[in-house]
């Protein structure tokens, strides 16, 4: 699910401490969606564009898969 990041006016966006100063970062914010706790994800270069809304469980699964190398094939040729 997604929504415009500008609709998440109370969101406290943050990015990784490993992010550089070039403005091409992924930012995350804790949000409440439909009464459930979740996480919004946006591109810092386009802060008012759509934000991806994930449940905490979905975010945990994504992070685990990244750590396990499940997306390493996407880095080839990058």
Q: Specify the number of helices.
A: 1
Can you give the helix content as a percent range? 10-25%
Using the alpha-carbon principal axes, give the shape. Answer: globular
Computed structural class: alpha+beta
User: What share of residues are in beta strands?
Assistant: 25-35%
Distance between the termini: 27 Å
Order of SSEs, N→C? EEEEEH
Poorly predicted segments: none
Whole-number total of structural domains: 1
Q: Mean pLDDT, as a whole number?
A: 84
Strand order of the largest sheet: 1-5-4-3-2
Characterize the biggest β-sheet. Answer: 5 strands, antiparallel
| Strand tally | 5
Radius of gyration: 13 Å
Provide a quick synopsis of the model:
This is DUF397 domain-containing protein. Helices cover 15% and strands 35% of the residues.
Topology, pairings included?
Layout (H helix, E strand, L loop, with lengths): L1 E3 L9 E2 L10 E8 L2 E8 L6 E6 H12 L11
Antiparallel strand pairs: 1-5, 2-3, 3-4, 4-5
């Amino acid at each position: 699910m997604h929504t415009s990041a500008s609709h998440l006016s109370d969101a406290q966006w943050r990015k990784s401490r490993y992010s550089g100063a070039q403005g091409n970062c992924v930012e995350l914010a804790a949000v409440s969606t439909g009464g459930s706790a979740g996480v919004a994800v946006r591109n810092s270069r386009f802060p008012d564009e759509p934000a991806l809304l994930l449940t905490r469980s979905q975010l945990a699964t994504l992070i685990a898969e990244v750590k396990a190398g499940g997306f390493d094939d996407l880095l080839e040729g990058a």
